[in-house]
Design brief:
Distance between the termini: 49 Å
Number of helices: 5
Oligomer: single chain
Number of domains: 1
Low-confidence stretches: 151-164
Mean pLDDT: 81
Helix content: 55-70%
Strand content: under 5%
Length: 168
């Protein structure tokens, strides 16, 4: 893994020299760094929200590794592409779930508004939910790939790429 010479990485990408595992390493490294960025600040006291960031790192690593393993069984291709694209709807679902659950909780139990213990756990729960759903979608992709290999794409209407209605 190269952490400084981006031009060398660009050459390796252009020559298609990186394996899916190597791409995963770059992806995990970036995800962990982004999770830790808010912790780099000027001498402010440590808060429970900082603990969320620390807790998010192992959840993120485990979540992506679990998805990577499912993807490897499916076809061991296009992991990063699938993560990025699936993350869009799942992130919106996660936000909707968070708003739908946590706003009523704050209204019903006002003391949780300032509780330092509740919010880190709640956020870790949402992140865990996100990776559980992402893992489920990778499992679905694997099932669809296996189905298409056994019966051909025309037998599975979900795999038709031309946008036409399912063949009967």
């Amino acid at each position: 893994m190269r952490i400084w010479k981006a031009s060398k990485v660009a050459e390796e990408l252009a020559a298609d020299l990186l394996t899916e595992r190597q791409k995963l390493t770059y992806f995990l490294f970036t995800a962990c760094l982004l999770a830790l960025v808010p912790l780099i600040r000027n001498a402010k006291p440590w808060t429970a929200y900082d603990n969320i960031r620390l807790l998010s790192v192992p959840i993120t690593i485990f979540g992506y590794l679990a998805c990577f393993d499912v993807n490897k069984v499916a076809d061991d291709r296009r992991f990063i592409e699938r993560v990025v694209i699936l993350s869009v709807p799942l992130t919106f679902q996660m936000f909707a779930l968070g708003l739908g659950v946590f706003i009523p909780i704050r209204i019903v139990v006002p003391s949780l508004k300032t509780s330092l213990a509740f919010w880190p756990v709640a956020n870790a729960g949402l992140l865990t939910w996100f990776f559980w759903r992402l893992w489920a979608k990778f499992s679905l992709i694997g099932d669809l790939i296996r189905t298409s290999r056994g019966a051909g794409p025309s037998a599975n209407p979900r795999l038709q790429s031309d946008g036409a209605s399912p063949r009967r």
